[in-house]
Fold this sequence. Notes:
Strands 2-1-7-6-5 form a five-stranded antiparallel sheet, sandwiched between helices. The protein has a two-stranded antiparallel sheet with strand order 3-4. It contains nine helices and seven strands. The termini are far apart. A hairpin with a 6-residue loop joins strand 5 (242-250) and strand 6. 36% of the residues lie in helices and 15% in strands. Helix 3 (97-110) packs across helix 6 (169-178). Residues 1-23 and 35-43 have low confidence and may be disordered. The chain has a single domain, classed as DD-peptidase/beta-lactamase superfamily (Beta-lactamase), CATH 3.40.710.10. The chain is of the alpha+beta class.
Amino acid sequence: MRKLSLVISLILLSACGGIPRRPAADPALSLLNPLVREDGLEFSELRPFDHKVKLLIDGFKSAGDATAVSVYFRNLQNGPLFVLDTDGKFSPASLLKVPLMMAVLKEAERDPSLLSRKLRNDLPSMVRSDFASHSLKRGELYSVDELLQAMIASSDNDAVVMLRTVVGDEPLNAVFRDFGLVIPEVRAFDDNMTVKEYATFFRVLYNASFLSKAMSQKALQYLAASDFKQGLVAGVPAGTIVAHKFGERTFADTVTRQLHDCGIVYYPSNPYIVCVMTRGSDFTKLSDIIRDISALIHAEVEAHRMP
């Protein structure tokens, strides 16, 4: 029952399907924390701009486009950090696929053959979400590596169930314990994670402080190949690498919707983490809110680049 409850929490809350057609980032490009800057770009001090983001959010709420918005921003060059609505809790939905990915990759460090292991998709069809793209084919064999790509890049729910046969409860629970987070199966079913808690996963991946450098790089490449383009990606210039994961949740018998998008924006020589969690009644409006917050943050980072 414990494993079943966690599978339900991972697949019932949201998702899309499929294996990404092409990577969003050159596999040879390091997505980890660089030891030194190599491109010579310089930045003036990035001063806090949380008041601008707060004004933007207040406008969305006044217009009735959202009832709750939480934002986490962290400059990964030891710059400012701010969190708006620190205590706001949301249903993480498909965001929980990131710690599952990390648990699988941790097991692959111990057993390098794991990623090439093949599994057959004999599952019944899953309910597809509002942001569905591709889906795994019934009866086909997929490697664990392909399933990880499908689960992260296309948020495929079949891949979640299949990968849960690869790792048991303990490896996944260990990810949460190592980060000092409450294990999902002992949380309340709804509204149980803050934006700051979730952003921890991306900081740890960027610093390669949980997985090896090779596995952290692989994880970030999966995330950079995400099919979801309506949120953070829509708010930055075309071609900008964004290693991110979205999550959506529809509440039965209500008009309440939740949409989240969290990740690392690879601004040249000044990458940053941004995580936006939203609650409202219209997915289109919520994705537009995430886009506009992403655009404002990118503009602020851009303004501090020295000519």
